């Protein structure tokens, strides 16, 4: 009871200090800006959706340019013009950023993701033991021209069992320190987190975007809305594996359905959502993964009836059809907030890939 009260007080304080003003970190898309942009908000150039060991080996000596170019071309051909990488330890995303302009793509990378020794994250980045070492890594991100900081603050889903997260979250005090240091250095913070407690502590630490965020509760969803952090729920790595045989379908479905339920609730609460497929993760192919993610996010809308009885287009996910028979005015914010689900279904049937996301992070 007391603990909860403390938390509430803390939140009030944070709000008063206006630490949650993220104007600079979240770019709102409007028709006059680049409304049509398709933004893949979570991808790993270093991975290939098939075999992570082989993928990492491919870039071991140096980033393999042919692979990167092929992947960028696939994104370009899918009309995706913004990619936010989740980091790697092979400089692959850095090479991708150098080449991206040739493909008309704005590429953003944290260079590598940062995790605390003994916690999850080795596959996509570098680790530290002490805060001094963490500071050094932030310095390295800065010197290498990182666009933001990616931190690993929690574990990953155990696809063999529901609901289990392998590896716990970092202690909240560490999260606070890490986020604080990154902010001080002028970076926004993209955070890999799962599980109710870790998500709550990460949000209280002031992260700017929540990646994955499985197994949340009503409380953390409300906190998400309050803080204004962007949520990238990455449904594709779970849903795309259903029927694959590697893990039990019931377990995958349970994670997926739980997440969809929470996405729906998040939309009601006004959480900022962005589509990021974790492309490169097993079964999530580059470029196609973005379309998959949107498909699953829209599936989360169900029949379009929310618990308040109102029909609502998915909060901050906006459809942006490029089909000539659809009037651009239909895509304006005002109309979309009340877009009925029948229309949305038609839109999806006519081409699920033609959808843009209003918010992106960093
Ligand atoms: Zn990732």
Keywords:
362 residues; TIM Barrel; 13 helices; seven-stranded parallel β-sheet; alpha/beta; binds zinc ion; three-stranded parallel β-sheet; disordered C terminus; 16 strands
Under CATH at level 1, the class stands as Alpha Beta
Shape: globular
Portion in beta strands: 15-25%
Give average pLDDT, whole number.
79
And the CATH topology? TIM Barrel
* Number of individual domains: 1
- Assign the CATH superfamily: Metal-dependent hydrolases
The ordered string of helix (H) and strand (E) elements is HEEHHEHEEEHEEEHEHEHEHHEHEHHEE
Q: Strand order within the widest sheet?
A: 6-5-7-10-11-12-13
Radius of gyration: 19 Å
Ligand species: zinc ion
- The N- and C-terminal alpha carbons lie at a distance of 36 Å
The assigned CATH architecture is: Alpha-Beta Barrel
Q: Tell me the structural class.
A: alpha/beta
The largest β sheet comes out as: 7 strands, parallel
Q: Kindly state the number of beta strands.
A: 16
**Poorly predicted ranges:** 14-36, 303-341, 347-362
Helix % is 25-40%
How many helices? The count is 13
Describe the structure.
With 362 residues, the protein is an alpha/beta fold. It has a single domain, classed as Alpha-Beta Barrel (TIM Barrel). It contains 13 helices and 16 strands. A seven-stranded parallel sheet has the order 6-5-7-10-11-12-13. Helix 5 runs parallel beside helix 6 and helix 7 runs parallel beside helix 8.
């Amino acid at each position: 009871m007391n603990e909860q009260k403390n938390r509430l007080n803390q939140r009030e304080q944070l709000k008063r200090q206006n630490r949650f003003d993220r104007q600079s970190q979240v770019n709102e898309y409007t028709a006059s800006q680049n409304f049509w942009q398709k933004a893949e908000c979570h991808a790993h150039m270093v991975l290939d959706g098939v075999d992570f060991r082989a993928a990492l080996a491919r870039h071991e000596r140096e980033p393999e340019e042919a692979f990167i170019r092929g992947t960028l071309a696939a994104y370009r051909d899918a009309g995706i013009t913004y990619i936010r990488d989740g980091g790697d330890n092979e400089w692959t995303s850095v090479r991708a950023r150098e080449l991206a302009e040739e493909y008309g793509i704005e590429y953003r990378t944290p260079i590598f993701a940062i995790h605390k020794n003994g916690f999850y994250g080795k596959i996509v980045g570098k680790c530290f033991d002490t805060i001094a070492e963490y500071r050094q890594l932030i310095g390295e991100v800065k010197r290498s021209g990182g666009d933001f900081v990616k931190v690993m603050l929690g574990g990953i889903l155990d696809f063999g069992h529901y609901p289990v997260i392998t590896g716990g979250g970092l202690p909240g005090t560490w999260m606070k320190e890490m986020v604080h240091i990154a902010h001080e250095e002028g970076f926004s913070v993209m955070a890999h987190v799962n599980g109710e407690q870790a998500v709550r502590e990460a949000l209280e630490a002031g992260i700017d975007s929540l990646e994955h965020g499985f197994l949340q509760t009503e409380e953390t969803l409300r906190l998400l809305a309050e803080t204004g952090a962007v949520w990238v729920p990455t449904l594709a790595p779970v849903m795309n594996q259903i029927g694959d045989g590697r893990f039990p379908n019931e377990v995958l479905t349970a994670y997926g359905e739980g997440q969809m339920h929470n996405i729906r609730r998040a939309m009601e609460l006004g959480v900022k959502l962005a589509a990021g497929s974790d492309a490169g993760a097993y079964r999530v192919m580059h470029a196609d993964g973005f379309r998959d993610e949107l498909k699953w996010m829209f599936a989360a809308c169900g029949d379009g009836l929310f618990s308040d009885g109102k029909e609502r287009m998915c909060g901050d996910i906006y459809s942006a059809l490029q089909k000539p028979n659809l009037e651009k005015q239909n895509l304006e914010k005002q109309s979309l907030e009340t877009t009925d689900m029948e229309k949305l279904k038609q839109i999806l049937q006519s081409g699920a890939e033609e959808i843009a996301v209003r918010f992106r992070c960093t």
